[in-house]
Design a protein that fits this description.
Layout: H1 2-7, H2 10-53, E1 54-58, E2 73-77, E3 91-95, H3 110-120, E4 130-137, E5 142-145, E6 153-154, E7 157-158, E8 176-179, E9 184-188, E10 219-220, E11 224-233, E12 239-240, H4 250-254, H5 264-268, E13 278-279, H6 283-313
Antiparallel strand pairs: 1-2, 1-13, 2-11, 3-4, 3-11, 4-9, 5-6, 5-8, 6-7, 9-10, 11-12
Helix pairs in contact: 2-6
């Protein structure tokens, strides 16, 4: 008789208490796990967007005025130069290390690279060597300044540049003549009188900065980051960056004398180009990460709760 009186009442009560305690703690643990998963997924997606698809940049100087103004934010298509070709007239962002800037040792530590990529989502990386310029000549082009009318010529075809040059700016006050080597690009700013571009780095031009590591002012195609295609900020400046009509002249490519002799390496090289730019705010890649990660996390939670419900019913 003592067994049921002393032990039975306590047994069900204790069991009920133990059943209710975990249920009370599960939601907090569940939402903690889901928050961690959500943040991790958002970062991974944001890094993927930033690394391979689209990256914002901020314009810090005047060399591309009035096409791009100081503090404009542009989107750069990072597929261009990797999956599609860069053309004359494109506005290109590239890494100047080893061409306009001294060569730098490549960091082989993958953890350091991942850290720098994550850090880049939340602000600029010190010592940036990214630039933005307009492509004037592609490999094999003969770019020259200037003809009797004061116009730049590419393969003997004059470029009418008034639609994008800074008002009152001459195509170039510096005389030059260059055949663009294989795997390289000749690039110039739209504000020609305030642009340290390919002319500034060509050892053949008087007054140029002649660097021992790179002497002809052209840009290596394999340093491409991508093509600027959209101004997104400020809202009053929102617009697409089209290639000017002068680069669509029918005779421009037909007159290109050296393209047929480009080496196989030159033909297969990744196209690229180059005003220094600063990585923009992380709003775009982070927003993309959150937009994709949130529904995936909610879907995962719903599937998990359904599976838990089926196990409980059994």
């Amino acid at each position: 008789m003592a067994g049921p009186a002393d032990g039975d009442p306590a047994g069900p009560v204790d069991a009920a208490e133990h059943q209710h305690e975990p249920r009370g703690r599960r939601p907090s643990r569940s939402w903690l796990v889901e928050t961690v998963v959500l943040v991790a997924m958002a970062l991974v997606i944001a890094l993927t967007v930033k690394t391979y698809l689209v990256q914002p940049f901020v314009i810090p100087s005047q060399s591309m005025e009035n096409t791009l103004l100081v503090n404009d934010k542009v989107l750069v298509d990072k597929l261009v130069g990797h999956l599609s070709q860069i053309h004359r007239g494109d506005i290109i962002v590239f890494n100047g290390t080893g061409s306009w800037n001294p060569p730098a040792a490549t960091d082989s530590n993958p953890l350091v690279r991942v850290y720098r990529n994550v850090r880049g989502l939340f602000g600029g990386d010190p010592g940036q060597t990214d630039y933005i310029k307009r492509v004037i000549g592609v490999p094999g082009d003969h770019v020259q300044c200037c003809n009797a009318q004061g116009l730049l010529t590419v393969n003997g075809i004059p470029l009418h540049e008034s639609s994008y040059l800074y008002p009152g700016s001459a195509p170039s006050t510096v005389k030059f003549s260059i055949v663009v080597p294989p795997g390289r690009l000749w690039v110039m700013g739209d504000n020609r009188e305030d642009s340290a571009d390919s002319r500034f780095h060509d050892c053949q031009i008087a007054g140029a900065v002649c660097e021992p590591w790179d002497r002809d002012g052209t840009i290596p195609e394999n340093k491409v980051i991508g093509r600027a295609f959209l101004v997104i900020w400020p809202p009053s400046r929102f617009r697409v960056l089209w290639v000017p009509a002068t680069f669509g002249q029918a005779g421009l490519s037909a007159a290109q004398p050296l393209m047929a002799s480009r080496s196989a390496a030159g033909r297969s090289a990744v196209n690229s180009a180059q005003l220094r730019v600063v990585p923009g705010d992380p709003a775009l890649p982070l927003a993309a990460g959150v937009i994709v990660a949130v529904p995936l996390t909610l879907l995962e939670r719903r599937c998990r709760l359904r599976a838990r419900g089926r196990r409980t019913r059994r």
